[in-house]
Design a protein that fits this description.
heterodimer; A: 151 residues; mainly beta; three-stranded antiparallel beta sheet; B: mainly beta; two-stranded antiparallel sheet; 1 helix; 6 strands; disordered C terminus
Chain lengths: 151, 65
């Protein structure tokens, strides 16, 4: 046998489930699962890795779209495969009967239970919607293809 | 008779010109459906399948591991 330096795979998964707090203060009050939301942003917006929380700046506006976006369906807990922890929303993210005439290309996933803190930014080809529905179908929930991977 | 939601309310699909298309690349497949009425687009929906919509937090492992 030999020892191997590594980040424990269980820890990666537990990061996604808020088991660990390296801060010096209590950061969470709730012990229930958080609610995550998905907001859309214009092609002219600046949403990126430096984004720390949901913002209305640069968010799409239009008939049928509510500021802040829609709730992400989360029925499947994070899990691991090999040394990768991963998570994917358990259903497509759908904006039903909206009119978004100014081009958008980004969706921000954020934690609406924790001060709207940002989770991830995902970009796609520029789109508009007219009296229609935007459906964002999620990738396969597996290591390497899931929406979020900690490898 | 299929009804389509449009900027002018629900309309019979048979009254509209339907256009569809697919933009397929490495990271996504966008299937769009448009309905037009007398040269005006009155409906557009997009079904966006994410293929490589993956974010990998390798930096976390790299900084500690």
């Amino acid at each position: 046998m030999a020892n191997t330096q590594a980040m424990c795979t269980s820890f990666k998964n537990e990061i996604l489930q808020a088991y660990h707090n390296f801060g010096t203060t209590v950061t969470r009050g709730a012990t229930t699962a958080d609610t995550f939301k998905a907001a859309l942003y214009l092609t002219s917006a600046t949403i990126n890795a430096a984004t720390t929380a949901y913002t209305v700046t640069g968010e799409v506006t239009g008939t049928g779209y509510t500021a802040g976006g829609v709730t992400v369906t989360n029925a499947t807990a994070p899990t691991t495969s090999g040394t990768t922890a991963y998570w994917t929303p358990s259903a497509a993210i759908t904006y039903t009967t909206v009119t978004l005439t100014t081009a958008f290309d980004t969706v921000l996933i954020y934690n609406s239970s924790q001060a709207n803190r940002a989770v991830s930014v995902h970009t796609f080809g520029s789109q508009t919607i007219t009296a229609g529905t935007l459906t964002l179908v999620m990738p396969t929930n597996a290591a390497g293809t899931a929406l979020l991977n900690i490898a | 008779m299929a009804l389509v939601m449009t900027t002018k309310g629900e309309m019979d699909e048979s009254l509209l010109e339907k256009r569809t298309g697919v933009d397929d690349n490495e990271s996504e497949r966008a299937e769009w459906t448009e309905y037009w009425l007398e040269g005006e687009m009155v409906h557009r929906s997009v079904h966006l399948t994410l293929k490589k919509f993956t974010l990998t937090g390798e930096a976390i492992a790299a900084s500690i591991g």
